[in-house]
Amino acid sequence: MVPRTSGITESALYVDDLARAVDFYLELLGGRIVRRDERFCAIQLKPEQVLLLFLRGRSVASVDVGFGTIIGHDGAGPLHVCFGTGDSPVAVWEQRLAELGIPLESRVNWPGGATSLYFRDPDGHAVELATPGLWESLLEAIPMDGKD
Hints:
2 domains, 2,3-Dihydroxybiphenyl 1,2-Dioxygenase, domain 1, 10 strands, 20% helix, four-stranded mixed β-sheet, globular
């Protein structure tokens, strides 16, 4: 039997300007900073969900934290991250993006009823805001046979 996870606890993005990225995501999503140094910032979005922002190239080496080692990692190029919209209507998120001067690149109205808003963060990462039911809508729109 395969053990089940409780979901994704952390998502990481690699950025060129940490202060700029932190400001962008705090303004857009709220949350609170739970740990920050010159190399990274952890923003808690929900009790069990954290967005990690790392300065590009500064997390390649493993880090001994005194009670264990965090293995090295890094990323290059435009990555993708998707945040759920929760109970807020899409129009509220569109208004928030406009208030922050963030251009919307794409809006997808999935046949099953979900909506995705796509835009870029200051480092060029593809950011998505998706309404509940995204994957049910996606699977309805593009049936998969599960063999891939």
